[in-house]
């Protein structure tokens, strides 16, 4: 018999809020974390705004030893360690200092690209013939699995400790990978999540593709406009989200707080065929992913109360809503919202940050509003009723929420949460 999987802890480092309390307050109030970045202006980016978490040196020092901080130059690792450690503590789990690993606990924590600034630092030193000045941590800061390795050592996890990477679906995919390991009885708990570096060396390629908004540099909080008729591209962001998934019986035995249950989900690819490409989703694959998530979770379309969409503020937003409408094929379309109006698109971190936002809504009985969507895209209003796209926060209980993420490479993931 499959094990039931519940969420017992969460942590978040987002552009509009660091820690659960500040993040929940921000999304309830529609607070944006998108700001003008002087560095992007100096480097002559067309888009000179971004969503970057605000962290002090004092805050960072709470999570790393002086030895770990020496030469640390990877924002993704910083974000991931803070979010992951907070989620662990939020679950009421202790950080053991003894010699024995926790064989029942593992980590699946993803990223898209890690240690970009450390790479740049290393390249300059190597080119200057100063390899020995690289320091002992350059490898662990730049290897993709550096984030799970850092967390694994801090938390002492002895089960599977690994990193996944699937562009913007990474965080949601990590959650489903952890879910599958627990349902199979191979672990009692898995810390899942994802992180993304910040900075021009991460965001520059997107600016070169001209898919970022360039006319809002003086009005950064208005730039990210999911489902809006005036959407002009996604705003780049960064950060990390983390969730502790746990076997239901284990959670009950130790009296843990349960935020929600993970019913299941699905992951697939459109194969970059049938309208899909490196940068665009195959709509048939999206529809199949949604349908498979419902089947696996053993729920009907009518039972979904809210969809937290991928919805990045591009011309593809209407197509995403259309795919949901076709997949659900129900008379009463659920409420739908997008976090990206407040955070921008946090790339590999987006799925996990948005999963945290989704579960917070369920736990606290609210649906956050869609920021910057006053001028709803007419292609979307032709598909669903405007009342299903709240502009302000609604106080409303949620029983079942569907979270979707779609990424470069034509990859898709959908997860279904249920309130307990």
UniProtKB/TrEMBL annotation:
What chemistry does it catalyse, as a reaction equation? Answer: (3Z)-decenoyl-[ACP] + malonyl-[ACP] + H(+) = 3-oxo-(5Z)-dodecenoyl-[ACP] + holo-[ACP] + CO2; a fatty acyl-[ACP] + malonyl-[ACP] + H(+) = a 3-oxoacyl-[ACP] + holo-[ACP] + CO2
Q: Which domain of life is it from?
A: Bacteria
**Can you supply one Gene Ontology CC term for this chain's record?**
cytosol
| Protein's UniProt keywords contain Cytoplasm | yes
Picking any one GO molecular function of the record gives:
3-oxoacyl-[acyl-carrier-protein] synthase activity
Which SMART domains does the record match to this protein? PKS_KS
Give the EC number(s) listed in the UniProt record. 2.3.1.41
**Do you know which InterPro entries this protein is assigned to?**
Beta-ketoacyl_synthase, Ketoacyl_synth_C, Ketoacyl_synth_N, PKS_Beta-ketoAc_synthase_dom, Thiolase-like
Leading EC class: transferase
**Keywords assigned by UniProt?**
Acyltransferase, Cytoplasm, Transferase
Q: Which Pfam families match?
A: ketoacyl-synt, Ketoacyl-synt_C
Q: Does the keyword Transferase apply?
A: yes
Domain Ketosynthase family 3 (KS3) span(s) in chain numbering: 2-419
Query: Its family?
Result: Belongs to the thiolase-like superfamily. Beta-ketoacyl-ACP synthases family.
Q: How does it assemble?
A: Homodimer.
What this protein is called in its record is: 3-oxoacyl-[acyl-carrier-protein] synthase 1
Per the UniProt record, the source organism is Salegentibacter salinarum
Organism lineage: Bacteria, Pseudomonadati, Bacteroidota, Flavobacteriia, Flavobacteriales
């Amino acid at each position: 018999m499959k094990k039931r999987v519940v969420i017992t802890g969460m942590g978040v480092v987002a552009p509009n809020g660091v820690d659960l309390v500040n993040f929940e307050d921000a999304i309830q109030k529609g607070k944006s974390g998108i700001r003008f970045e002087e560095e992007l202006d100096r480097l002559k980016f067309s888009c000179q705004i971004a969503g970057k978490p605000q962290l002090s040196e004092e805050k960072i020092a709470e999570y790393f030893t002086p030895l770990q901080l020496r030469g640390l130059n990877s924002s993704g690792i910083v974000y991931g360690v803070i979010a992951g450690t907070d989620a662990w503590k939020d679950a009421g789990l202790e950080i053991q200092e003894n010699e024995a690993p926790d064989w029942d606990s593992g980590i699946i924590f993803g990223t898209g690209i890690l240690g970009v600034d450390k790479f740049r630092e290393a390249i300059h030193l190597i080119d200057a013939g100063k390899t020995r000045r690289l320091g002992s941590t350059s490898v662990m800061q730049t290897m993709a699995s550096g984030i799970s390795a850092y967390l694994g050592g801090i938390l002492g996890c002895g089960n599977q400790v690994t990193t996944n990477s699937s562009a913007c679906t990474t965080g949601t995919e990590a959650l489903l990978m952890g879910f599958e390991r627990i349902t199979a009885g191979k672990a009692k708990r898995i810390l899942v999540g994802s992180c993304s570096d910040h900075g021009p060396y991460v965001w520059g390629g997107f600016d070169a593709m001209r898919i970022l908004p360039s006319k809002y540099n003086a009005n950064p909080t208005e730039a990210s406009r999911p489902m809006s008729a005036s959407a002009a591209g996604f705003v780049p962001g960064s950060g990390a989200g983390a969730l502790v998934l746990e076997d239901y019986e284990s959670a009950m035995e130790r009296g843990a707080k349960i935020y929600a249950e993970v019913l299941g989900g699905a992951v697939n690819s459109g194969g970059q065929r049938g309208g899909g490409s490196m940068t665009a989703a195959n709509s048939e694959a999206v529809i199949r992913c949604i349908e498979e998530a419902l089947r696996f979770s053993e729920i009907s379309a009518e039972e979904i109360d809210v969809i937290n969409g991928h919805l990045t503020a591009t011309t593809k937003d209407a197509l995403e809503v259309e795919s949901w409408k076709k997949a659900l094929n129900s008379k009463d379309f659920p409420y739908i919202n997008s976090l990206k109006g407040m955070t921008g698109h946090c790339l590999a971190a987006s799925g996990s940050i948005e999963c945290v936002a989704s579960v917070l809504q369920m736990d606290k009985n609210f649906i956050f509003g869609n920021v910057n969507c006053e001028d709803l895209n007419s292609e979307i209003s032709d598909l669903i009723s405007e009342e299903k796209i709240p502009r302000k926060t609604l106080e409303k209980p949620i029983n079942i929420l569907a979270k979707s993420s779609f990424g470069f490479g034509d990859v898709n993931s959908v997860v279904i949460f249920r309130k307990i």
